[in-house]
Each structure stands twice: as C-alpha cells, then as structure tokens.
C-alpha cells in the first residue's frame, strides 16, 4: 500500500512538472541567441598575406634565431594586434642590389605569384647599391660621386615597385631605409653619414611620389646603438673600440636580435600611421 502511494506521488510530481514546463514554454518567449550564424562567420580569423622582399636585412643576417630578422616579428605582431592569420613569405637574399632584386622579380614566378596575392609588402634595398659605389670608387671617393648612381638607383626602385604592383595595383608597400654601421668606431668619417643621409633622402623622395608607398627610416634608431647615444666599450689589451650594441658582433654590420626588434617597431609604427590603407 505504501509503495503504491509513493509511486502515485512520483507520477503526479513528474506530470505536474511536465505541465509546468510546457506552460512556461508557451507563455515565455524564447530568447534570441546572442551570436547569430553571421556573427560566427564574421568572427572567423581573416587570412593576411605578407610578402617581404629585399637583401640581407630581409633575409635576417645577424639574427641568431635564424628565423628571418624583423619579418617574423612583424608577422607575429599582425597576428597579436590585428587578429590576422598571417602567411609571411620571405624573399630576402643577402648581398642583393636593386638590380639583382629586379632580376629575381622578373625571373622567379614564385615571387610574382606571392605579390599578386599579397595584402602588404616590405622592401629593404639600397645598402648594397651604396656599397658597390664605394667599392667602385674607393680611391677617389667624394660626396658628389654618389649623385649619378643615386639617380639610377631611384629609377630601379620605381621599377621594383611597379613590378610588385603589376597584378596588385593597390598593394601597400613599406620601404626601409639604410643605416651607417661605422659611425661609433669612425665618427670622424662625417662624409659617410652625409652619404647615408643623402641616399635615404633619395629613397624617401622616390617613394613619396607614389600612393600607398611609405618610407621607414631606421638610421637614427641603429647607428648610435640601442640607447641612441653610444654603444659598449670593449677593451682587449691596448686595443679599445666601441661596439654598437644594436649590431651583430659577428660582423658589426648587420642588426642583432635587438636591432631587428627595433626595426620591427619602426615598421609597425609606420603601419599604424597608415592602417587605413591596408586594414580591411
């Protein structure tokens, strides 16, 4: 008898609960989902193609991680700051002059294909062109020696940009300047800094004529070391020299890991200033 009453009580309870839930569902409207299917689609990570073209600074010589200098740092920042899924392709080759970069662009279909799909491009060029002028005129070097070669370099730079945009006419391009790696040890070579400044001015004046092409200066960030005033004094016996702590000690010429971090920040700062031209 007691068992029967318990069973009847349970049936009554669950029947009442079911009736209450049904009544609640009829009387209370269903809440709309917070995220619609369209919202989920919008939240998908956008793919972003970044192409880096240039010389040893793009290849990353001096980067002891062997990851590619400032290029992967920029790519990672685009992921962290903008939420992009970045596909970064590095076409940097140490020692390349503007002529050699042009030749690779004309002959390598992989570069052309990457540029046609790119959302953004960085370019390091000019340092090896300047070096060639110095070596070709080492016995009679004057500031005026660089005037004619800089004009020819400017024309090649325009051609590089033209080729980069052949199938991608609105491609935003960031052109990095060059720097004077000899300043700290040879500050008396004032002509060298003038030559570097003039070369950078040629690059800037060339790109300033073009839409969505930007000059990124790095000389002032690197030529005096990390703190911007002096490097590290290194003494060996009677020999004392100043080491630029933004440069790789293996050659005292290319940036070290910190130097590439400084370059990355310069590129990102310019990108931030011009974000409307590439962010979509």
From TrEMBL:
<feature type="domain" description="SGNH hydrolase-type esterase">
    <location>
        <begin position="52"/>
        <end position="262"/>
    </location>
</feature>
<protein>
    <submittedName>
        <fullName>GDSL family lipase</fullName>
    </submittedName>
</protein>
<dbReference type="InterPro" id="IPR036514">
    <property type="entry name" value="SGNH_hydro_sf"/>
</dbReference>
<dbReference type="Pfam" id="PF13472">
    <property type="entry name" value="Lipase_GDSL_2"/>
</dbReference>
<dbReference type="InterPro" id="IPR051532">
    <property type="entry name" value="Ester_Hydrolysis_Enzymes"/>
</dbReference>
<dbReference type="GO" id="GO:0004622">
    <property type="term" value="F:phosphatidylcholine lysophospholipase activity"/>
</dbReference>
<dbReference type="InterPro" id="IPR013830">
    <property type="entry name" value="SGNH_hydro"/>
</dbReference>
């Amino acid at each position: 008898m007691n068992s029967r009453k318990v069973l009847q009580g349970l049936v009554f309870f669950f029947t009442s609960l079911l009736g209450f839930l049904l009544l609640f569902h009829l009387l209370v409207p269903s809440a709309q989902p917070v995220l619609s299917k369209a919202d989920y689609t919008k939240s998908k990570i956008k793919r972003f193609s970044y192409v880096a073209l240039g010389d040893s600074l793009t290849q990353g010589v001096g980067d002891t991680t062997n990851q590619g200098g400032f290029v992967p740092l920029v790519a990672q920042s685009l992921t962290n700051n903008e939420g992009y899924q970045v596909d970064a392709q590095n076409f940097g080759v140490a020692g390349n002059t503007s002529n050699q970069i042009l030749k690779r662009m004309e002959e390598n279909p992989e570069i052309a294909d990457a540029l046609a799909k790119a959302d953004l491009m960085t370019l390091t060029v000019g340092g090896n062109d300047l070096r060639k002028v110095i070596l070709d005129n080492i016995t009679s070097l004057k500031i005026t020696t660089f005037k004619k070669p800089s004009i020819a370099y400017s024309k090649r730079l325009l051609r590089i940009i033209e080729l980069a945009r052949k199938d991608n006419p609105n491609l935003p391009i960031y052109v990095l300047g060059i720097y004077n790696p000899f300043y700290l040890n040879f500050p008396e070579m004032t002509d060298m800094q003038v030559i570097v400044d003039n070369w950078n001015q040629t690059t800037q004046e060339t790109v300033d004529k073009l839409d969505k092409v930007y000059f990124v200066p790095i000389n002032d960030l690197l030529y005096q070391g990390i703190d911007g005033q002096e490097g590290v004094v290194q003494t060996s016996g009677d020999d004392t020299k100043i080491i630029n702590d933004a440069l790789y000690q293996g050659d005292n010429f290319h940036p070290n890991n910190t130097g590439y971090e400084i370059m990355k920040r310069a590129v990102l700062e310019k990108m931030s200033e011009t974000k409307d031209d590439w962010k979509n």
